[in-house]
Task: inverse folding
């Protein structure tokens, strides 16, 4: 099947059994009340875990619909080991935009963190769950993005490589890396990282993205654009 | 001089004579009333034509200030021949965001056009002038972006290469091109180009950016991120 002008729905893996799946909640509402789908119509549904199903509606009830799976596309998450660690930004719209664009560009793992220069210190990752879900469906991707929150130092302690972005770093990031091991990309907030944060990542793992000053969300989106899968 | 944590101002080339320049209007207001600059303070000012001046304030009057140039940085616009042709989008915030990000990433020439699938047909390039100016200053760039408006067919008639982006194109855009000749990058609106528009650019000049569906502004920003200068 060729996916391009379709509408993609999401249902959690627990609502899929053998060749039948259930669509409920907002997804059900959108399909039936907004898009006016009914029995026998064809839909595309992802389980957020690598599959996109082509299904045919069997039954529409008050709050959910049942559909039979008639076809399956299976995807591999090539960026499964990549974690984008995104600082809390002053402007929530810019932060939301960064998440949306990253998901469209294939990033599936996020950590929202408070940096020393972050003006707000309270990470509320749940606020972005809807943005992540919508962007996944919009870009016809089959992996529901994960978002965690953490402190900067806790990220540094995690197993895996750390790559830190800093405008003044000597090396330019080219987007090539070993996608087989866990890698944490650290982006600075408005005003950048402070000296202690900078120095918690070795100099050879600090990169710049352009010679010019970029807003936080621009650096994040440019980096996601450069990843060569 | 090293530019990183500075505030950059803009004044038009006509207000610069020998080693003295004038700052007026919003730029004056921001410097004096918001940033509280006064006589003898140092400022950075671009003429939007490739120069950034370090200046010292000589005199502050009611609506303008005069400053003496004490240092000059000269830049080359490597993307001078590149034109980003951006369709009118339904959502003005997404359009504004696309312009802002492109400027931060170094694009200086824009054509706002109405595509057959554009819902709104009225191009109002002047609405984005402030966004372009702010993004230039924010990213410490020295070229004031130009924005024109045009119809799709008029762009096709212009001298120079045309590169059209389409999700279903066979070739993937890698960011490499000949920066010495005029090149027009054409991006589709929500719903993409129609068949007539697609076919007005030869197949070898049609490129995709990912295998996935991208929103218009995401395709535009990804492309700007990929340009290898």
Result:
């Amino acid at each position: 099947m060729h996916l391009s002008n379709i509408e993609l729905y999401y249902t959690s893996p627990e609502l899929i059994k053998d060749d039948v799946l259930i669509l409920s909640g907002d997804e059900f509402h959108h399909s039936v009340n907004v898009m006016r789908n009914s029995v026998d119509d064809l839909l595309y549904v992802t389980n957020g875990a690598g599959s996109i199903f082509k299904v045919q509606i069997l039954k529409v009830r008050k709050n959910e619909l049942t559909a039979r799976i008639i076809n399956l596309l299976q995807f591999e998450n090539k960026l499964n080991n990549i974690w984008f660690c995104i600082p809390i930004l002053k402007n929530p719209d810019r932060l939301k935009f960064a998440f949306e664009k990253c998901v469209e560009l294939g990033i599936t793992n996020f950590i929202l963190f408070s940096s020393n220069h972050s003006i707000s210190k309270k990470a509320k990752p749940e606020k972005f769950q809807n943005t992540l879900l919508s962007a996944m469906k919009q870009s016809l991707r089959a992996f529901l993005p994960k978002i965690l929150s953490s402190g900067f130092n806790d990220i540094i302690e995690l197993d895996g490589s750390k790559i830190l972005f800093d405008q003044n770093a000597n090396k330019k990031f080219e987007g090539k890396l070993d996608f087989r091991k866990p890698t944490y990309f650290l982006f600075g907030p408005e005003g950048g990282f402070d000296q202690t944060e900078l120095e918690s990542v070795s100099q050879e793992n600090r990169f710049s993205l352009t010679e010019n000053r970029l807003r936080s969300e621009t650096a994040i989106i440019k980096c996601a654009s450069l990843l060569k899968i």
